[in-house]
Design goal:
- This protein has helices spanning 15-23, 34-37, 66-72, 102-106, 110-115; strands at residues 4-9, 29-33, 55-59, 76-79, 87-90, 93-99, 116-120.
- It has a domain at 1-15 and 29-100: 3-Layer(aba) Sandwich (Rossmann fold).
- With 150 residues, it is α/β, with parallel strands linked by helices.
- A 5-stranded parallel sheet has the order 2-3-6-1-7.
- A hairpin with a 7-residue loop joins β4 (76-79) and β5.
């Protein structure tokens, strides 16, 4: 199963808005600001991730880090924190947003395509003015995981 969803398109078309809307249906999402985290992925990149994290959302990842990030999010994820013992966990679902065009995505081979679902976000859905809207209004029901009550 592909556990990484990549929302790509031009700057300002609503990728972050869509990803944040999707992340609201998860119980324990972790949001990482791609550019602020670093332009070089270091060993503490996932220090906010806990063993119960069910979604990692990386917003606006730099193009230079994209391929490495996809490979790190597949299979076992190594989580390291300063002054703590590192641990491995099964990588949770992930959403990555990236400012790029189809040509950038097309350059990657079958290995990346086998690991990711790609969604080309071209225009903001009509009526989006920054206010909160229901995700299911513009996404298929099957794309949205069900909330689980404990």
């Amino acid at each position: 199963m592909k556990n990484v969803t990549v929302l790509f398109g031009k700057k300002g078309v609503g990728k972050t808005f869509l990803a944040k809307s999707l992340s609201e249906v998860y119980r324990f999402p972790v949001i990482i600001d791609g550019p602020a985290a670093s332009s070089k992925i270091d060993k503490f990149y996932f220090d906010q991730v806990m063993d119960h994290t069910d979604l990692i959302f990386i917003d606006d990842i730099p193009k230079i880090d994209f391929e490495e990030m996809v490979f790190r999010l597949f299979g076992e994820l190594l989580v390291e924190r300063k002054y703590n013992t590192p641990f491995e966990m099964k990588s949770p679902r992930a959403i990555i947003t990236i400012d790029c065009d189809k040509q950038f995505i097309a350059q990657f081979g079958g290995s990346i395509n086998a690991r990711c679902n790609f969604i080309h976000v071209m225009n903001k859905p009509k009526g989006i003015d920054g206010s909160r809207i229901e995700t299911k209004k513009f996404l298929p029901e099957s794309f949205i995981p069900k909330k689980v009550e404990l």
